[in-house]
């Protein structure tokens, strides 16, 4: 289970319709709605500046939130739509969906690394590069993993760790339907430079000093 689901505080919006929404915007808020589940739709307001900051941070629509509204039980939600001003591109309305425990959602899950202290490739000076520090998975709302772990304990220089080598949590699967690289162990820059220089010398030695012609 994910240990850190961010809180999203909102205010219940009194009144509905365009008039209430306009008033919310004049008050520095962004109107929204929470729907789905076994409860009635709940009109809400979100502070404009806080919402804009979260939107600029990225992946707002693929982040699970614990929504807190005074007078209501906390509920897990995910954003389903952000309406924006056609000219200013600023948020004007946000839709959130309540999640049941069995709901399947797409989330970016962080990658942890195990076995770095015993990896033969890293012991030889190899460099570990996380190609994907996060992996987008389809997960069940009740069983969201805090992270996934890749094992580099047997990885050598030149090896790649792909998603097929990862033990994913039960009920989870990648959104990408192919094997893809999560991390690589590459040679240190000094060794790569020496190898490149040696390769260039070898290629130069193999080139004939003069062009041979068939004059006979």
Residues in β-strands, percent = 35-45%
| Count of strand segments | 13
Sequence of strands across the biggest β-sheet: 1-3-2-6-5-4
Overall morphology: elongated
Q: What gap, in angstroms, lies between the N and C termini?
A: 80 Å
Q: Largest beta sheet, briefly? A: 6 strands, mixed, barrel
Describe this structure in words.
19% of the residues lie in helices and 37% in strands. The model is unreliable at 209-213 (pLDDT under 50). It starts with 6 loop residues before the first strand and ends in a 10-residue tail after the last helix. Strand 5 (75-84) and strand 6 form a beta hairpin. The protein contains four helices and 13 strands. It is elongated. The protein is of the alpha+beta class. A six-stranded mixed barrel has the order 1-3-2-6-5-4.
Task: Give a nutshell description of this structure.
This protein has 216 residues and is an alpha+beta fold. It contains four helices and 13 strands. The strands form three sheets. It has a six-stranded mixed barrel with strand order 1-3-2-6-5-4. It has a four-stranded mixed sheet with strand order 10-7-9-12, with no helix packed on it. A three-stranded antiparallel sheet has the order 8-13-11, with no helix packed on it.
Looking at this protein, list some descriptive labels.
single chain; 216 residues; six-stranded mixed beta barrel; 13 strands; elongated
Would you spell out the secondary-structure blueprint of this structure?
Blueprint: E1 7-12, H1 18-26, E2 29-35, E3 42-47, H2 48-57, E4 64-69, E5 75-84, E6 91-98, E7 104-114, H3 120-123, E8 127-130, E9 134-140, E10 148-151, E11 160-162, E12 173-174, E13 181-186, H4 189-206
Parallel strand pairs: 1-4, 2-6, 7-10
Antiparallel strand pairs: 1-3, 2-3, 4-5, 5-6, 7-9, 8-13, 9-12, 11-13
């Amino acid at each position: 289970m994910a240990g850190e689901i961010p809180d999203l505080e909102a205010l219940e919006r009194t009144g509905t319709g365009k008039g209430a929404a306009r008033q919310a915007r004049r008050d520095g808020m962004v109107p929204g709605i929470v729907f789905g589940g076994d409860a009635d739709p709940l009109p809400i307001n979100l502070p404009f500046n806080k919402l804009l900051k979260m939107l600029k941070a990225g992946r707002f629509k693929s982040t699970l939130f614990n929504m807190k509204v005074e007078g209501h039980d906390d509920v897990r939600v995910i954003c389903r739509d952000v309406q924006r001003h056609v000219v200013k591109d600023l948020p004007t309305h946000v839709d959130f969906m309540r999640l049941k425990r069995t709901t399947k959602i797409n989330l970016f899950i962080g990658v942890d690394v195990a076995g770095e202290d015993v990896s033969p490739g890293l012991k030889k000076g190899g460099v570990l590069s996380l190609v994907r520090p996060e992996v987008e998975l389809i997960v069940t709302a009740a069983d969201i993993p805090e992270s996934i772990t890749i094992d580099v304990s047997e990885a050598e220089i030149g090896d790649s760790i792909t998603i097929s080598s990862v033990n994913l949590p039960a009920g989870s699967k990648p959104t990408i339907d192919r094997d893809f690289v999560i991390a690589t162990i590459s040679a240190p820059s000094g060794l790569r430079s020496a190898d490149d220089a040696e390769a260039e010398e070898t290629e130069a030695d193999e080139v004939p000093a003069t062009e041979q012609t068939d004059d006979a």
